[in-house]
Recover the amino acids of this structure.
């Protein structure tokens, strides 16, 4: 269907260029990757004779069977009239998917089985098991981490971890440890086992790779070391009122002055700007250049004269992000990262790091553990049990996508679609869990006691609305999957 969408033309362009078609194809790919991950895990669990193979099989039945039916239907829709003919094979796939679902039974029954097993402590762990060949390296890493665990002063621990490359172990020395994929996994596992936490880089984690790649040696010494120690709080000064997803249309201007630049304009949706010491900012240094040219990447002192930070109250009632006004803020030449007018390259590097960071999951929303804790002391009815099981299966499949990505990296293979798919599924899953738990409270959902369960769930539910916006909106991510993975035509330029 995707190949057909590349060549079938209507209204003077390929139908795959229309977002309605492109997004449908992208969502079909997402369903396919999710189903593949679930079926793969069930197959290996059965091959191994694992005690939790029943859970893996039930998850696969929930995810893969319905995905097969929906994907076959969507393929026919994309194909249009030709997909409705007997001659085309599309109907064969639909018939096969429908027959398989009929033979296996309703997915709600399998979802109820997933919930029963998970609530009873029978959820299958998604863990990466390394070969015995990795044991000597594990022992060496464990010994080094034991020394770190003995450091009681948090600041001293952060300084040592930052200086010895534990903050970004995959980076080259002296900033990282030049750790390959296996060593990175071992470090992560051993730090967790020893309950040693690496310095919290926060938003600075998005900046670090860009500094390593583009910054001068003096800039690296000045900014990288304290950032890796967790000593600098950063904010990202990218988005503007008229430049969100279309970031290259930014209008903040930077004027050349003696010894540096003066920045003037407005940034918005800037998380943690009210707490940040430094910000990484892009501004237009050549207004006559093409859209993606004439942009320069700056490091801005957030305490400099002319910086005005105004917190924005969010729908949660809190103020995580801000609008930031720069009024003739002086930035010296030694705080320009990369070449003047070539800052878009640096910004793209930072944005890719932001998306990778967000795609790896983390404690920003409600997941399977929170879902199971919410229902462990409740007695859900049949309908609720099936819904809980469906959510558990969704969460399990997302974890499996992460595992498959890691395994590919260990074998020197590019991850492919899994990483992009996981980001999209992950944020939607966080929303779905929070929404469901909030609604399941009944009348208690109408009130909010901040530190009680109702308040915690309410905040998670409200905050989750941001998850499909920041780090690249769902719609933009669907475009990326459709264009870069499926090879569908790019959206036309405005006016064409």
């Amino acid at each position: 269907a995707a190949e057909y969408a590349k060549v079938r033309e209507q209204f003077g362009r390929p139908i795959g260029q229309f977002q309605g078609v492109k997004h449908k194809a992208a969502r079909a790919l997402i369903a396919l990757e999710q189903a593949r991950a679930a079926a793969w895990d069930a197959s290996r669990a059965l091959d191994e004779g694992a005690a939790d193979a029943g859970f893996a099989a039930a998850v696969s039945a929930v995810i893969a069977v319905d995905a097969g039916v929906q994907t076959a239907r969507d393929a026919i829709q994309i194909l249009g009239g030709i997909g409705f003919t007997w001659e085309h094979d599309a109907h064969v796939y639909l018939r096969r998917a429908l027959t398989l679902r009929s033979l296996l039974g309703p997915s709600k029954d399998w979802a109820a089985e997933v919930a029963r097993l998970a609530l009873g402590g029978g959820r299958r762990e998604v863990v990466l098991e390394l070969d015995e060949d990795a044991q000597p390296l594990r022992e060496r890493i464990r010994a080094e981490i034991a020394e770190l665990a003995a450091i009681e002063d948090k600041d001293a621990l952060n300084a040592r971890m930052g200086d010895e490359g534990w903050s970004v172990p995959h980076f080259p020395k002296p900033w990282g440890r030049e750790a390959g994929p296996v060593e990175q996994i071992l470090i992560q596992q051993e730090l967790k086992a020893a309950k040693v936490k690496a310095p919290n880089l926060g938003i600075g984690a998005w900046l670090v790779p860009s500094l390593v790649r583009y910054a001068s040696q003096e800039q690296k010494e000045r900014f990288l070391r304290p950032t890796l120690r967790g000593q600098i709080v950063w904010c990202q000064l990218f988005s503007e009122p008229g430049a969100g997803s279309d970031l290259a249309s930014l209008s903040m201007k930077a004027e050349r002055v003696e010894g540096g630049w003066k920045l003037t304009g407005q940034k918005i949706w800037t998380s943690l700007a009210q707490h940040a010491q430094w910000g990484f900012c892009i501004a237009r240094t050549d207004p006559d250049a093409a859209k993606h040219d004439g942009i320069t990447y700056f490091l801005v002192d957030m305490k400099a004269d002319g910086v005005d930070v105004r917190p924005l109250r969010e729908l949660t009632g809190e103020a995580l992000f801000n609008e930031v006004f720069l009024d003739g803020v002086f930035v010296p030449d030694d705080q320009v990262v990369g070449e003047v007018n070539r800052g878009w390259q640096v910004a793209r590097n930072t944005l890719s790091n932001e998306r990778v960071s967000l795609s790896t999951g983390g404690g920003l929303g409600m997941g399977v553990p929170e879902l199971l804790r919410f229902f462990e002391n409740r007695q859900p009815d049949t309908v609720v049990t099936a819904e809980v099981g469906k959510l558990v299966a969704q969460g399990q499949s997302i974890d499996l996508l992460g595992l498959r990505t890691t395994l590919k990296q260990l074998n020197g293979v590019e991850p492919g679609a899994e990483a992009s798919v996981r980001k999209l599924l992950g944020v939607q899953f966080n929303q779905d869990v929070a929404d469901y738990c909030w609604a399941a409270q009944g009348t208690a959902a109408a009130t909010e006691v901040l530190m009680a369960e109702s308040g915690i769930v309410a905040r998670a539910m409200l905050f989750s609305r941001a998850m499909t916006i920041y780090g690249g909106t769902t719609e933009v991510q669907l475009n990326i999957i459709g264009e870069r993975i499926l090879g569908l035509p790019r959206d036309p330029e405005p006016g064409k």
In short: Confidence is low (pLDDT under 50) at residues 355-363.
